[in-house]
Amino acid sequence: MSATQSNNLPLWVQDRDKVIAESTDVEWRYQTPPDYSRSKENLAKESTSNHLEGTLEAIVQNLVRTFEMEVSFKANPQQWLSIVNDKFRVSTNGGPEYKAADLYAQGTYNLFMADSEHYKASEESFESSAKLFHTTFPQGFPWEVLEVYSGPPTVTFKWRHWGHFHGAYKDYAPTGETVEIIGLSVAHVTDDLKIISLEHYFDNQLFLDKLTSGGKTNSETKGSGCPFGSWFKKSGKG
Fold first, then answer.
1. Does residue 185 contact residue 156 with C-beta atoms inside 8 Å?
2. Which three-class secondary structure state does DSSP give residue 40?
3. How large is the average pLDDT for residues 40-46?
């Protein structure tokens, strides 16, 4: 597909910055549009996949990045372009289904990560969870599509989320390593590529084990060792 043809695609599957630029009269959660310039620098340096504009992989990647941007920054879910608002549902690992309003109120971290020993979603707000992970990954937490296994209307794709663990996670010391999550998602979309439903599958526990592997910052348990440490050392660092 040529660049001209790709520009004829719906806005929400084009570059995220274009979506932001054309989102006029939008209620922004923090009053101003988000700035992804630092994120784009990280993606350019660390992405493992470079999808050509207009390919199915690039379209899926743009759609999910637009969706993530809208959840994080657009204050009125009715203004989210990437979903069919009245039908939209999202779930993680076969868990409960949530609506767009739930995502706006609680944030993706809280709905995608159930209560566990090292993360209590039920005790976190949208703001507290966002602050926590921004602190943990001060250089950002980029996301990319790795492979797309099936096209519309049921889009199945593999993805990678990664960040450099340079800030403390709660009271656990940073290790400086690259923390990587590999996951699989299934998106049901309309003919014009809006998301009707989204199912995510990934290993929450593996992620949290890595964030606590450095030991407590004020504890004698440093170096207790994480059983998954070697797995992460072998995994790609972008």
1. yes
2. helix
3. 88
Which residue in this structure is represented by tokens 């663990």? Answer: 165
Residue type, 80: W
Burial label for 28, CB within 10 Å (0-12, 13-18, 19+), is middle
- What is the Cβ-side half-sphere exposure of residue 145, based on CA atoms within 13 angstroms? 24
Please enumerate in sequence order all residues whose Cβ is within 8 A of that of 180, keeping only pairs 6 or more positions apart, or say none: 160, 161, 162, 232, 235, 236, 237
- Give percent above pLDDT 90 in the chain: 76
What is the model's pTM? 0.85
H or E stretch including 155? strand 154-164
CA pair distance 48, 18, nearest whole angstrom: 23
The residues near 51 (Cβ < 8 Å, ≥ 6 apart) are 57, 58, 61, 145
Q: What is the pLDDT of residues 154-200, one digit of tens each?
A: 999 999 999 999 999 999 999 999 999 999 999 999 999 999 999 99
Residue 122's alpha-carbon distances to 77, 108, 112, 113, 189, in angstroms, are: 22, 13, 12, 10, 30
Instruction: Fill in the amino acid letter for 206.
Output: L
Residue found by looking up tokens 């993706």 in the block: 108
Confidence class of residue 40 from pLDDT cuts 50, 70 and 90?
confident
* CA pair distance 204, 198, nearest whole angstrom: 17
